[in-house]
Amino acid sequence: MCTKLIISAGIREVQYLQPYYKSLVRELYEDSVAIDEELKGKVKFHPFVGVTPNGYRLVFEKGRRKDDNGDAVRWNPSEAYPVFTTGYPSYLNTEANMLLGLEDIKDTMEAKSNPLGLVPGTSSPKRARPAKPKNASLAKAKKAPAKKKK
Questions:
Q1: What is the pTM of this model?
Q2: How far does Cα 18 stand from its chain's mean position?
Q3: Assuming Cys at both sites, which of 6, 48, 82, 108 could form a disulfide with 15, CB separation 3.0 to 4.6 Å?
């Protein structure tokens, strides 16, 4: 359903099963809709919380109820296992995993765009200084040349 028609019809709340990432609703109707928040006088868009129709069938469907002879299959609790093992909501797990990788990509892009290690925010081509060690005496000891044996 089109958001424009939803707003015109006076619908106050929309629950969606999966977010549509290409949606421009937030940008086009920012004065009329509230996505994932409660704002008075705006149409509320928020995710559905519960078991979807397909999920309900997956969770509660038993499978074969009769054997090849037409007799009822007895349920054995020792052989029972969960039918529905997907985490809720699955898109949140996907988003979290994507965010973990973005930090590495950002660091790599910054390193490639600044191969000389220039100091950001300055117009002069000065190199960034390496961080000073916390213990200056250790740094001097590491730089001192090794003594020659006689």
A1: 0.39
A2: 14
A3: 48
